From TrEMBL:
Entry protein name: EfeO-type cupredoxin-like domain-containing protein
Pfam family, one: Cupredoxin_1
Ranges of residues in domain EfeO-type cupredoxin-like: 22-119
Lineage: Bacteria, Pseudomonadati, Pseudomonadota, Alphaproteobacteria, Rhodospirillales
Transmembrane stretches, start-end: none
Organism: Thalassospira profundimaris
Amino acid sequence: MIEHGKRDVFAFLVLILAGAGVAGGVSHAQADEMQVFNMDIRDGVITPNRIEVPAGTTFKIVVTNSGHSPAEFESLSLRREKVLAPGVKSFVVIRDISAGTYKFYDEFHMDQPSANGVIVAK
């Protein structure tokens, strides 16, 4: 049998753990709803070089460097950058993007027009 004071602590802990489970469920549901875009950077060629998303959403860009030289996904306006060695895959998450056009580029290949792109939020 649990003593009165210990029973109150036990009940409090059960409520905390139950609340954490509910919050975890919400986070999981939101993660399942996140849009994912795949992007390939190959020696200065970004594919796709245009991504359209609904404004106010959170999304993930999975970036793969399939080239033979380093690559970097960089966007000054979004304050995101990700450097990738050849053969590496990683991701960037962009949260609650406002309507507008956001430029990004591969900083290692800025001399190539194909190393630029845009994210358009509508």
